[in-house]
C-alpha cells in the first residue's frame, strides 16, 4: 500500500540551518528584492525565535519571517510558499501559525506589506483578518508600490 503525503505542512520555529532554504525561496520569489543571506542571518539573530517555517515531507517549503518589537508591534517581513506546494492551504496554515506566535509573545498589531495585484497574498491576508491601512507608491523604491495591512490581536 502506498503512503499518501499528508496534505498539510508541519509548522515549526525556524533554525539557523533553515536559512539556506529560506534564501533559496526568497531568490525565486522576490528576485532583486530578495533578502541577501547576510541580511537574513542578521535578522535571524534578532528575530529568528519568532520565525515560522513549513515543512512538507521533511523539506522546508515555506516561511513567515516575523519581527516583534518590545512595544506590541510585529511585522511579517517575508512570506512565501514554494511554487510546487501552492494552492493546498499551506500559506494559510503558515500565516495562522505565525499569528499564533505573535499572540504568544503578546503582539497587539501585526503589519505586512503586499504588492498591489498580488491577489493570492491579498486574499489570504484579508481572509485571516488583515485590513488595509496605507499605500505608498515607492515603498520599496521607485516603481515598487506596496499596500500596508494590519491585523489587530485582542488579548
Ligand atoms: C502568497 C502565497 C504565499 C500563498 O501560498 P499558498 O500556499 O498558495 O496559499 P493557500 O493555498 O493557503 O491559499 C491561497 C489562496 O489564494 C487564493 N487565490 C489564488 N489565486 C488567486 C487569485 N488570482 N485571486 C484571488 N485569490 C486567489 C486561493 O483560492 C486560496 O484561497 P482559499 O484558501 O480561500 O481558496 C504564495 O502564492 C507565494 O509564495 N507567492 C509568492 C511570494 C509572495 O507573493 N508572498 C507574499 C508576499 S506579501
TrEMBL record:
Entry keyword Metal-binding: no
PROSITE patterns given in the database record: GNAT (PS51186)
UniProt feature coiled coil, ranges: none
UniProt xrefs under Pfam families: Acetyltransf_1 (PF00583)
Transmembrane segments: none
Domain N-acetyltransferase residues, every copy: 9-154
Keywords annotated in UniProt: Transferase
Origin superkingdom: Bacteria
Record bears the keyword Transferase: yes
Entries under PANTHER family matching the protein: GNAT FAMILY N-ACETYLTRANSFERASE, LD18367P
Protein name (database record): GNAT family N-acetyltransferase
Amino acid at each position: 500500500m502506498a503512503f499518501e503525503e499528508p496534505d498539510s505542512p508541519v509548522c515549526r520555529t525556524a533554525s539557523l540551518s533553515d536559512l539556506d532554504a529560506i534564501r533559496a525561496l526568497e531568490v525565486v520569489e522576490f528576485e532583486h528584492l530578495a533578502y541577501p543571506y547576510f541580511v537574513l542571518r542578521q535578522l535571524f539573530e534578532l528575530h529568528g525565535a519568532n520565525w515560522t517555517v513549513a515543512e512538507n515531507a521533511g523539506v522546508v517549503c515555506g516561511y513567515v519571517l516575523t519581527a516583534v518589537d518590545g512595544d506590541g508591534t510585529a511585522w511579517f517581513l517575508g512570506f512565501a510558499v514554494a511554487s510546487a506546494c501552492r494552492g493546498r492551504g499551506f500559506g494559510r496554515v503558515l500565516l495562522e501559525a505565525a499569528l499564533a506566535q505573535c499572540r504568544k509573545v503578546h503582539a497587539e498589531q501585526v503589519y505586512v506589506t503586499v504588492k498591489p495585484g498580488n491577489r493570492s497574498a491579498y486574499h489570504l491576508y484579508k481572509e485571516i483578518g488583515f485590513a488595509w491601512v496605507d499605500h505608498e507608491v515607492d515603498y520599496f523604491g521607485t516603481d515598487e508600490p506596496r499596500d500596508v495591512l494590519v491585523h489587530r490581536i485582542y488579548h
